[in-house]
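Check the record.
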Amino acid sequence: MKKWIALVALLLPLSLAGCSHKTVVVYAAPPPPPPPALDETAQRAYHDGFEAARRDVSEERRPGVEKHPRFRNPPVPPPEYEDYRHGFRAGYNAFLHQGPHGPAPEGSYPQAPPPPPPQ
């Protein structure tokens, strides 16, 4: 009988320690459509960037677009690298500013300046 009590006393803390993990729930909304001004390469990159940001948030990693392999080495021919990186960065930032719970409240992050007028 004493062996059973000792066994339970040893196993009880171990069984309770398994229940201390944190549960993270990420809203899996589809990414918004890319801006219509982007070409086909940039639209695919926009989706890739949105998904990369979603994974970073769900895995509780610090946001940083430059650390992603697809941003550093785009899966497109060399002449399209800059278009891909532009679209990837736009999608990544779109997720961070929209987030899993909708757009951030007004004034919660600085607004980007308006684009320069066309020449």
